[in-house]
Amino acid sequence: MFGWLRRNPKKKLELQYAQKLEAARDAQRNGDIQSFATLTSEAEEILKELDRLAEAAQDDCGQA
Description:
InterPro entries: DUF6435. It comes from Gimesia alba. This protein is mainly α. The protein has one domain (about 15-64). It has two helices and no strands. α1 packs antiparallel against α2.
């Protein structure tokens, strides 16, 4: 009934992913390759979590 009040974890992760990629881009442009690598790795972990959420959503829809 109140499902629309809950926050969507997918949107939160998508925002974090975009922010990490932007920070990584800025680090690379400033010549800080170590920070670029770290931020890119963190962004990839967030992307993996997004993929897991998408798979879980597909599994939930398929069971109904």
